[in-house]
Glycosyltransferase family 92 protein
Amino acid sequence: MSFTLLLFAALIGQASLGNPTRYLFSKVELDQSTMYTMLSSFSNVGKLPIYFPVSNSSADYTSDVWMDPCYERFYEVGAHYVVYWLVNRDMYCEALVKASATTVPTKPLYEQQHLARVERKKTWCPPELE
């Protein structure tokens, strides 16, 4: 009986929290042109983008977890943004950090029309601090 209760609680928690690697992220609400211009102040710190080919018939791109490598990269490099590019129906993502003296700002990897989505980690504040 307790196993059933535990399983039920886990399923409810998953439904309300979402996937642990991405539930703290939200889409940046800037128009594509503004966001693309801002990206030149950021760097992927020499990491190649993560590639999700449309031709991979074994991939389940309808699942909740297919984007996990993007968020794992975000935490790995201490990024500010997760950026998604759609190029010839293939998806790429990269984690970008603010350029500094040790990271050289770079031109975005793809042209503006390929910028599909930019996400940032939400910052939660207690109600008394808002």
Notes: The CA atoms of residues 37 and 56 lie 32 Å apart.
